[in-house]
Amino acid sequence: MMRLKLLKPRLIGIVIASLTGLIATATINQPSYAGGTTFYCQKSNGIPITFARTQDGRNVPMIKWVSQDYFSKEWTNERRCKDVSRRFQRSYDNGTLKYIRTGTLRGETVVCAAANQNAICTDSTLLFTLKRGSNAKLTMRRLLNRRGLVAGSVLNESSEDTVNIDFNEYLNKATDELDSESN
Fold first, then answer.
1. Whole-structure pTM over 0.85, yes or no?
2. CA–CA gap between residue 36 and residue 96 (Å, rounded)
3. What DSSP state is assigned to residue 102?
């Protein structure tokens, strides 16, 4: 009986040490997004632009918001820019921004974040909605900074309606210069 009482604290200590080791290992193996890419909206020449600030300090222009009054008056280009920049950040922080892809959500053509090329667009991965009847492939090429799409390996057109962009490759190959051409 006495031996059991002496062993009990040791066993508890071993169990606690083992659990601490497991928790530390689990924490180390989780992806860390601290200090990673951040997304924000800023105007350049009066045009709202969604930018990505990379770990190495580059400010990569992603989307110029120049829609011509297609969306309701409350969804101004500036509001869309701010809202979409927050959605990019949320998806990046959640680890789901591995790909930018086109898809359909509630009958609308959308652009969403995806953890893999086959992921479907959902409310939680939605980045923005495209104009009704627009060609997703052409719109993606027009909206996203062309300098990031120069390398063919970035853009994967898996069907007539579906476009997948490898986000990390896109960001690594994109320049931090604004296109002189209007999107």
1. no
2. 14
3. E
Task: Calculate the dihedral angle through the C-alpha atoms of 110, 111, 112, 114, rounding to the nearest 10 degrees.
Answer: 120
> CA 108, CA 120: separation in Å to the nearest integer?
13
b vs e for 29-61, b when ≥16 Cβ sit within 10 Å of the residue's Cβ? eeeeeeeebbbbbeeeeebbbbbbebeeebebb
The residues that bridge with 113 in the sheet, in sequence order, are 100
Q: What is the DSSP letter of 161?
A: S
pLDDT band at 146 (very low <50, low <70, confident <90, very high): low
**Which residues does residue 50 pair with via DSSP β-bridges, in sequence order?**
41, 63
Cα gap 112→119, rounded to integer Å = 10
Phi and psi at 141, nearest 5°, equal -65, -35
Rounded Cα–Cα distance for residues 51 and 30 (Å)? 26
pLDDT digits 0-9 by tens, 67-111: 766 667 788 889 999 999 999 999 999 999 999 998 899 999 899
Residue ranges covered by each domain of the chain: 38-173
3-state secondary structure of 144: strand
Tokens of 114: 């995806």
Mean pLDDT of 4-13: 51
Find out whether 27 and 76 touch, Cβ atoms under 8 Å. no
